Amino acid sequence: MHSKTIKSVMTAVVLATIVCAATAKPAKTSRLAKYATLCKLSDPKLSLCLTTLMKDILKHSKAGIPELNIPSLEPFVIPEIDLKIFQGLGATIFGGTVQRSDKSKAFARNLIIHHSSEFDIHDLKVDINKNEFFIDLSFPKLEIEGEYDVNLIMFNMPIKSTGPVFINATDIAVKATLNGKTIKRKSETLLLFDSIDIKVDFKDYSISIQNLFKKDQNLNRALNDLLKSQKAELRKLTMPMIEELAGKMVLSMINQILTGLPIEEIFITE
Fold it and tell me: Among 123, 152, 253, 264, which is disulfide-ready with 7 (CB 3.0 to 4.6 Å)?
């Protein structure tokens, strides 16, 4: 789920898929034709054509395509996610507990994702009847930096802190099914994605939480040493967070350009 190519690529492709269901009529001219191979709605190999279209757009991921209002994918920014790792950190790693109250919180904010444009598309399928778009893609690596903001009671000790957090992952595999609907804006047809079902896997990862214990650098070092040594257990804790992050990334990238690329510009006039 997490900036230009992935947004345009996925949006264009998805737009195309659901447009089929809406039976939108293709325009005579298309700005997209300068950058990608357009598809015909009647093409029996529509999924293959859409995959090629996405790969064409992918070539412009870092620079973007201003003419199509497609911004750069580098870097991609997510404003906030729930930092679920803290909910199970105490019990899983330290054998303790994290007490929660109405004032408890654990968030990561202003997440900057590097290498988000360096993905490869392996498969793309469209179910016109269900308005579903399935994509199988992978990232060689993602480097994420942001700021955590936590207010918890851990081991009967209040922890209220903010600071930098770093998350790196390699060989990330993403399989996602997106659901959307078409809307009309004047003479144009746009696609809006409102839900995503996503599964993520990765070969290796690392997490570094800096300066959580403001007054005790020894505890900070011990925490990050444990994060390194308990990867197997932490993987279970981080997976929901990674999937939430990937889901928000994919949805956000697509929806950011929905108003910039009408469905009618994706297909060849027949």
Answer: 253
Query: What residue ranges do the domains of the chain occupy?
Result: 74-263
Residue 35 contacts residue 65 (beta carbons within 8 Å): yes
Pick from 249, 257, 241: nearest CA to 82: 241
Find how far residue 196's CA is from the centre of its chain. Answer: 10
Strands 132-154 vs 157-185: parallel, antiparallel or unpaired: antiparallel
Query: Tokens representing 156?
Result: 């009967």
* CATH of the domain spanning 74-263: 3.15.10.30
Q: Parallel, antiparallel, or unpaired: how do β-strands 76-82 and 120-127 relate? A: unpaired
* Per-residue confidence in pLDDT tens, the chain, 270 aa: 444 444 444 444 444 444 443 344 444 477 888 888 888 878 888 888 888 887 887 777 777 888 877 778 788 888 888 776 665 555 555 555 555 555 677 888 999 999 988 888 888 777 766 777 888 889 899 999 999 888 877 666 777 888 998 988 899 999 999 888 888 878 877 777 888 899 999 888 888 888 887 777 887 888 788 778 878 877 877 787 778 888 888 777 767 655 667 777 777 755
